[in-house]
Design a protein that fits this description.
- The structure is a homotrimer.
- Chain A is of the alpha/beta class.
- The first copy, chain A, folds into 2 domains: 7-147 and 318-331, Rossmann fold; 162-309, Rossmann fold (3-Layer(aba) Sandwich).
- Chain A has 12 helices and 11 strands.
- In chain A, the strands form 3 sheets. A 5-stranded parallel β-sheet of chain A has the order 9-8-7-10-11. Chain A has a 4-stranded parallel β-sheet with strand order 2-1-5-6, sandwiched between helices. In chain A, strands 3-4 form a two-stranded parallel sheet.
- Chains in contact: A-B, A-C, B-C.
Chain lengths: 333, 333, 333
Amino acid sequence: MRDFLDLGALPRAEVLELLALARRLQERPEPAALAGRILGLLFFNPSLRTLASMQAAMARLGGQSFVITPGSGSWQLETRAGAVMAGAAAEHIREAIPVLESYCDALGVRAFAEGRDLAADLAERGFTAIADLCHKPLINLESAMNHPCQALADWKTIDELGVPRQAKFVLAWVNHPRALPLAVPAAALTMAAQRGMQVVVLRPPGFAMPAPLLQRAGALAAAAGGSVTETDDRAAALAGAQVLYAKEWGSTAHYGDAEADTRLRAALGDWMVRDSCFATTAPDCRLLHCLPVRRNVAVADEVLDGPRSAVRQEAANRLYAQMAVLHRLLATR
Amino acid sequence: MRDFLDLGALPRAEVLELLALARRLQERPEPAALAGRILGLLFFNPSLRTLASMQAAMARLGGQSFVITPGSGSWQLETRAGAVMAGAAAEHIREAIPVLESYCDALGVRAFAEGRDLAADLAERGFTAIADLCHKPLINLESAMNHPCQALADWKTIDELGVPRQAKFVLAWVNHPRALPLAVPAAALTMAAQRGMQVVVLRPPGFAMPAPLLQRAGALAAAAGGSVTETDDRAAALAGAQVLYAKEWGSTAHYGDAEADTRLRAALGDWMVRDSCFATTAPDCRLLHCLPVRRNVAVADEVLDGPRSAVRQEAANRLYAQMAVLHRLLATR
Amino acid sequence: MRDFLDLGALPRAEVLELLALARRLQERPEPAALAGRILGLLFFNPSLRTLASMQAAMARLGGQSFVITPGSGSWQLETRAGAVMAGAAAEHIREAIPVLESYCDALGVRAFAEGRDLAADLAERGFTAIADLCHKPLINLESAMNHPCQALADWKTIDELGVPRQAKFVLAWVNHPRALPLAVPAAALTMAAQRGMQVVVLRPPGFAMPAPLLQRAGALAAAAGGSVTETDDRAAALAGAQVLYAKEWGSTAHYGDAEADTRLRAALGDWMVRDSCFATTAPDCRLLHCLPVRRNVAVADEVLDGPRSAVRQEAANRLYAQMAVLHRLLATR
């Protein structure tokens, strides 16, 4: 493993090894494994869990980190090839990425979707432009359509919850004040498919997962003994579910059109996870959510504060998942 | 000691032990005492000394830190129970605190007073909401009505200055362009009382310390052989003082009313510490101030740059005080 | 060496020793040389390379850092002596600097030119006010007229490129949307002179280097067997050049007058480095630039992406140059 960009691109066996390593590092710390190693962290977008847990993961393994935040303490970075840089951005990623990687042993980058052109975002045009410039191990801290650190932590959490491999996993759209990127739903869909689960994407009309994501997940699921379907039928989707993975995302039918998106979601206020959503699920069905979550908009207090919520455990697993990734990328070099 | 939330709640003997530990760590460093330990730092409000000295304290003991600043690099956090989160805050402290504590061994939090409702701030409603969510050792980096790290450093400084236990300690209100919180004056009042000093709160009409703070300080002083009084008589207060602890705070008679507060303080421009304030103090009376200080508004250059000022030593002691706290919380676990 | 404020003030032999140390630390890491040491970093202005590489340099040597950014996470700092602080700044550097240095073993400070009064900036009035307050080793991370960390990395890079000592070094003005400070051109001029090169400052009318900088560079060059001249004749300047050091700076004839500066540079759009600039240079002439660089405004893509560019190597050398500086300042104390 040279980089950590896309969980779905790893052979399933390699994911299982990463999960085993995460469990091992959780139980038997290796406080000197990355002594002297440096992780550079470049955040084009805000963060809480990733910002804290990546630094903590390096520290737990004996390494150190530095954080660069374009637009806050550092200037804005230009990403467009061939740009005449007479505007706000003072530096191009063609300089910034090679320079930053020269100061560290691995680079983590967060660069959200632009949210205007679905094809461009599906092609990961922004993150790929960065990745192409980086020759040190690179970690995707959330790109337009991926969040592999989250997906690995999710898988670990589902394992810990004792969820059978072929159980029903419902990726359930929930409401939010505005359109959010597809990164986490795409990563969760891929992860659950790769794990071999019976994956159901439950979302209202206008919020269908893009076909390429469904196709890829379908192929991964088929190879692992699972399946992927999509529906807007809440009753059918939730019946028998063992994992309810709630997530907000923007309208894909009106991608980049904030006004149309807002109009659609205005009528979807009841797409919020409540206790009543679990009436027909498996009795031990648990709630996952990558966080941050809008309480009483996306998920009701009663669920987040109740016994079905595994969101804190899921977030805590970010640390161990990332320790495994960093260990794999840096400890054996 | 499980947390470090309130110096006044610690038995006096335990404070003396912390002070002895601070002196020991200052003289005989323990660069590996917290090797592998991680301190999470959550700043809802700006900081210079606390931000730098907490990181330095961890580093001096061999540990590491990470810093989260809601609203800058991380999103805003909701604190109200039951909120329907359709506004600016993307995440609730009910998620953020448990998640952040899962990435570290101890959490330090700064959350200033809301400054609207005196009773709510006296009840530490905001900080308590956070503390209730945290199960790892928690350090108060300044709450609505407390700043125990500052108070411990103050006590250490007063000891170093050779101030007798029962000397006269004057907590003197000074002017500032706007209303500041009561956290530091409350903590200084409590600390001096707990140390057993003859404490005088000197403040103009409209800026009386809230009764519950005075009562608590009075009880602590009585138990330690000291006393607490309050006055607006500058001549009487300053006569014989051995410590002049200058501090700005907002009108308590008009708590949360910025307009009334501004009107009051417009007539109080001469409530600034000048050399002339020391005319009738003890000859070796020293100036303390927690910093930041508005020069020539709160304290004149002549005092800050003269021999009476101990404010730099006081600030430097933040490092050793906090090393002691971190050592006590984390080294023996 | 007690501080690192000005490369030109160091004896040439001491610079050569620093360069040798930088090469040694690059080849033979010393991961424990600064174990337990703390570097404080105070940034009054934005940064990418310096912010990342100073933290990385400490980490590579086993130490740690903390970062303070007035105006972001910390409040604004007042620098004027005698100020009545009733404005935006909450703290004076007369407190902030001594306090911050008390938390670390060395302090690095970035404080750009004010850009209003050329004489004040040439006198380094701002940085000197800070330096006078600091009694721990101090590192200049870019002041009004200096950037010694950059200059040391530049020298190292020129050595690595195999450029003969007395080769022709052209400091070439290039365009930019607005007036930038003189710190880097002043430091590069001084460095190349001190190295003993044939230094030519190439700039359009209105952008002459201030006389004191030219005089100082001339004296350093003379002592090292080189020379310093200035011209606005691009053909003459570029002929035979072995290093083309491109840099943007503001009009010195209209220092602090943004309108006049903008008017001047509106006609200077062709002062951009293109491949054609190398038509008459030495065949192996290389491009240096401190970065950040405005692509296709200051330097064309074709040059930055072509074989003449050494800007990434130059930026990478910041790490090793600063490791040498930190090692010299802290390892032997």
